[in-house]
Every structure is written in structure tokens, then in C-alpha cells.
Amino acid sequence: MADMTKMITLKINGSEVEVEKGSTVLDAIRAAGIYVPTLCYHPNLIPHGACRLCIVEIDGIKGFPTSCTTPAEDGMVVYTDTERVKELRKEILSLILEQHPHECIICPQREGCSRTQCSSNVPEDERCCPVFDVCEFRKAVEYVGIEEGTPKYVPRKIPQIEEPFFIRDPELCIVCGRCVRVCQDVIGASVLEFVYKSSDITVSTAYNLPLAEVGCRFDGCCVEVCPTGALRDKTRRWDAPPCNVACPLGYTPSKMVNLTSKKKFEEGARLILEKAALSKVVSYICQAPCERDCRRGVLNEPISIRSIERFLLDRHKAELPMKMPDKGKKVAVVGSGPAGLSAAYWLALLGYAVTIFEAGSEIGGGLRFIPEFKLPQSIVKEEIEKIASLGVEFKTNTQISKLDDLKEYDVILLTIGRQKSEDLDVRSIISEAISGKELEFKKVALIGGVMSLDAARTLVRLGIDAVLISNRSNLHLDELKEAESEGVKIYEGDAKDVKINEVEGGYEVIVNGNMIRVDKVISERFSVDEELGLRIKDGLLVTKQNLETYQRGVFAAGSAVLDEFSVARSIATARRAVEEIDKYLGGNGFTEAQPYEEEPDFWLGRTENFAELGRIKMPLSKKGGFELVELGYGEKEASAEAIRCLRCDLRLKLESPPLPPEEFMELTEKNIATVPEVEGVVRLFDEEKNIIFIKGTEDMKSLLEEYLQDPEAKYFTYEEDKMFTKRESELIQEFLQKHGRMPKYNDELEDLF
Q1: Are residues 567 and 285 in contact, defined by beta-carbon separation less than 8 angstroms?
Q2: Closest by alpha carbon to 664, among 703, 738, 718?
Q3: Is 643 helix (H, G, I), strand (E, B) or coil?
Q4: Domains, the chain, ordered by start
Q5: Which pTM does this prediction carry?
Q6: Using an 8 Å Cβ cutoff, are 190 and 605 in contact?
Q7: pLDDT by residue (tens digit) across 699-737?
């Protein structure tokens, strides 16, 4: 709550407003809910006053001061929209427009334009830029208005500069200075600077060198604050760091990596432990889809997120969360692989009595077939003991062949994997090799994914030539490199790309033009055993949306419902199944507290040769055979690897610059009654004022009445237009340009656009 002794009162356009001492006049204007145009101003930057669009009149002060740099004083009387102020803004804007393409802004057909051709025959170098639909500059210009006689823009013919993630387009620069100030004062990289040449001022790097050569951090904050598109993304801006979106388990890798870079190791570990059931196992064997989507890989190699995660968990002992009170319900989990163990962990925490049934003699399912050099069985044992400490009961050597055997349980969760194979499978190979059984072949081709890679690495340790045919993008980068260094030959390809001919003494395998002679071919061909009497399609259990099978009270999760094996996705389905089981039994699912968000720390500083920093290799021991060969990161390696992060999250934490107000009407009977019953186009918005529907109609009022009870539709706008089909198409095209997809309720039109 503000200290009233530190408050001052101003009058803005006749209305009184209170602000804290030390505020600017622009702060007071914003507090009054009034919009004034700005281009050089940004909430995260120290006011600059360069564009002068925010000028106002103040009683007792000569001239027209810029509101962003003028300190607010008690008793001030400010006017933001007098006729003279409006005229001056147009004059100021005309000087800016002389140096910036603006045919797109005055074009009557600008909305919905394809941007690929121009019906008004405007030369290509004067046409709309790719950010037209989200252009802050355009919106400010449309608000202020263009003065008659504004000089025609003459292209300066400055070439675009293509960077790894961004495009620098000096032709669109209005020298507002935002990018320079965010780079120097907020990020601390000091890569961008003003360049003076005669009477010309431009923004560039030292000697106009590429960003990678001057220590750029590629965080994207400069792009985020650019109001014109002079700095713009090569691809559409993301709404969350790509690594976070890619994680099936709901971790926030970007935050974990950032905490590691600051040596806040315990906080980093806690982020993982709050979400995970088998956190330590995952940190050793996850295929790390987060790394595949890591933008650092565009520069050289992605961040080794899995290795950082393993470092944090190896040094931090997990504290078990508190269990909920006993709910008096029993759940049977069939299968003790990653999905079954994870589900048992969460079910026990939610207050259920859980029993895991395992057909084999040991708990662990598929985890038991992962080689020791990749996942020490001591880690698996540690995770199983943690789950047992929650009261979970384990029953081994118990084959469940009929669901009726589990009638005493309130719910059954099947995490049975895809255990049935048409021939000798990769798990058997690993098991036989480790047990010392002599194998009958000297050269083998394995076709598949992560299990085939494990088998190939196991076989080369026995002196057998192993060839792996796999989609490399589905395998972990470090494991691929290690496998190749160990002697595994890897060919790119999926099972459908492979042709196998039986020849004398073995097989001829052909993939993407490569011909390989081998003694044995082994494919990952697994399916779910049918003896439980449940629906199976393409070798997988068939479930409803909530992961319930078509037998009431029987749910399924893990690789039995997944088209492609992934330990992270398998565990993610288990968590979702647990939530659905809890709801089925009368609970509310998981209720997670909103994470506390600290004030963002934008300062990165300058790191010379940042773009060239290579991925820190995992230290190896001198042991060989089937013993553990990876030692894992120490503090030094983990911190050095984390510092390579581009900090994709930072630009999302910048505040949004103020934009001209848009007119939204609440979707109520009263407001709909004011809409005429004529042709036009209606736009519906959700609670966050995101467009969800664009529709042209002969009767706008009737259309709006249809959506009055819709739970998502909260606001609307409308515009009369007899050519409503044309106008609908224009607005949909505009939306597509901005978002790359159709509005939610327009999905049925996807194929037309």
C-alpha cells in the first residue's frame, strides 16, 4: 500500500489523479487511464525523450515538454489532447515517416493483405514489412494520424543483415534507441550502439560486424522492444522458452539452468523434485526433448540440460512431500516400469493404498534392461525404496492374466508396457550379453530407437560389430556421440525406410542408399499382450481421452498407450492417469501452488566469444566393460554449461509498451441490444481479450445472441460491411499473419487458408 505522505496530486485533462513522488508526468497520465503515443519510451527503460510524441501542455510551463522525462509535481495541470498538441504530434511524426516506409500504413487494403503482391502497384521495397500486423509503430501512426503533405519515403537501399535468429533491417529503423538501451543498460551486453556518420545516425554493432562476433547473448530483448521490425525474429516469437514447452514432465528447464548458472544449486534441484516421481532415473536416461528444441543448437550445440539436472539431483537428497490423509480406497497398478512406479508414488501421496503387481521376479520393469554404464541399478534401487517408504506394496512373480483377479480394488491402472515381441528383442540382447551368454552372431543391425541404441552399445563392448538404424533426432546427443566413439556405426532412417534381403550367410540391409551386410537383424517390434481382453489397436491399448480403457474403472498409462517410447512421455501419461483416477474416485486431482516469481534479473553482462562456447563434455572414468563410464558434472562444469544458455525467457519478462486503446464490448444482452441487425463482421474475444472467432454475417445481432451463453466468449467487436464475406476473409488473413493459425472457433476453415 502506498505511503500517503509520499503521494502527490495532479489534474490530467480535468481529472485528478494521485501518484507517488518521483513519478513522471507520463506515469501520472497512465495512472489516469489515458493513452498518449510513445515510441522511444518503454516501461523497462530509463526515459529518453527522443521521439517527442508524448508531448503535453502544462499550465505554467512554456512549450510542449515530453511527459516521459518531466517530473510530476503536486498541483500540476496537464493537457494531453489539445488541438495544438495533436497538430505538433502530426508534424513530429511526419519527420519520422520521412525516414520510414509508410505506404503500408496509408493503403486502404492493408488489412488482410497477403504481403506477396500489391494491387496498388507500390514498389516492393516500400511495401508492408513482415511485422505489419503486430507493428507498434503502425498502431501509433494510426492513432496520431498522418499530416497532409507528409513527404513520400525514398528507400535508402540499406541491405538487410541475416543473423542466426534475427534479421537486422536498418531500412525500418527510426533510431528510437530502445534496442541500444536495453542491450547496454538492462542486459549489460553493450553489443548495439549508435553509429554517427555525417548527419546520419544509425544503430549497428562495432564495425558493423555480425552479432556472433561481438559477444551478442541472443536473448532477443532488443527484438522484443523494437517498435518497427528493424530487428525481428526469423520465425514467429514464442510464448514460452522452447525447452519448457518441450518437457512432457512440466519441469521448467530454463529456470533450472539459470539457477545453476548462478550457483543456486539447491533451488535448481527443488524445481525438479517438486514435479518428479523418478527424478534421478530421469536425469540419467531421459531422451531430453528439451535439448532438441533448445535454441542454442542453432549456434552450435544445445544446452546439456539433462547433465545439469543429473548434477543437481546427484548432490541434493530429495525430501518426500507430505502424504494426504488416507482416503480409504485401493488402487492396483499392474507393471512396475517407469510409468507404474511413478503412478504409485503420486497415488500414495494422494492418500490411496497402492499395490504394484509385477510379473517378473524384480521390481523395475524396463528399467532392469538399461545397461549399467548408462543407468546404475543403485539409482533404480534408491528410487524404489523411496516409493516403498510411502507405504506402497510390491507383489512380484504375479502375472495378472484376468482383470477379475483384481476385483477387490476400486481402480486398476495398467502400466504393462509393450512386452510382446515377434522375435528376439533388444531387451533380451542386453540381458543375455550382460549375463555372459555367448551370442551366435558377429555383426548385427539394430533398427529402432533408444533401446536399440542401448543394445548396440552393449554389443560393441563384447567385440560384436553393431550397426544402428535410427532417427537421430529422437536420441540423446551425448549418447549418440558416445556410441559412435565406442564403435557403433549409426545410419539415419526409420523402420519404414529399411529394406531387408535374406542372403547367404546372413542379411543385406539397405537404408537411404547404404547397403550393409550383417549376420542378424533385430527390430523394435513390440505390442501389448491381448490376454487381458481389452481393446487393442496397432499394438497399443485403446483408451478414452481421460486414459480410461473401455472397461469402467480400468485406466492405462505408459508405453502401452504411446506410439513411440520415451521415458519422459511415459511418466507424463502416468501423472495424467493418476489425476484422472483421483477425479474418478471423487478427488480434485493435483492442486499445485502457484510458484513464487522473483523480480526478473535481466543483467547478463558481456561474454566474449559467447556464440562459440562449446557444450561441456561429461567427464568419463577409466572403467570399461559394463561398469559406469560417465562421472557426471561437477560444480565447475555444470555452471560453465549453464552459462551457455541464451536466456530465451528474459524477453517474455519485459513489460509491454502502452498501445492505443481498442474498443471491446462485454458480451451481455444489454450490449448486444445496441448492435444493428445488418450485414457485417463480428469478432469474439475470451477473458484475456484473445480473438477466438471471426465471422461475417447478414445479421450481426442474431449471431452475437447465439454466443451469449458460450463459456469462453466474454467480449466482442463489430463493424458494418455489406461486403462481409470479403471483410471476414481480410480479418482472418490478418489473424493468420500475426499468429500462424486460425482463431479457435474458426478451425473448420483451416483448409481454405
Answers
A1: yes
A2: 718
A3: coil
A4: 4-144 (3.10.20.740), 242-319+608-642 (no CATH), 330-420+527-584 (3.50.50.60), 423-524 (3.50.50.60), 665-752 (3.40.1440.10)
A5: 0.84
A6: no
A7: 999 999 999 999 999 999 999 999 999 889 888 887 887
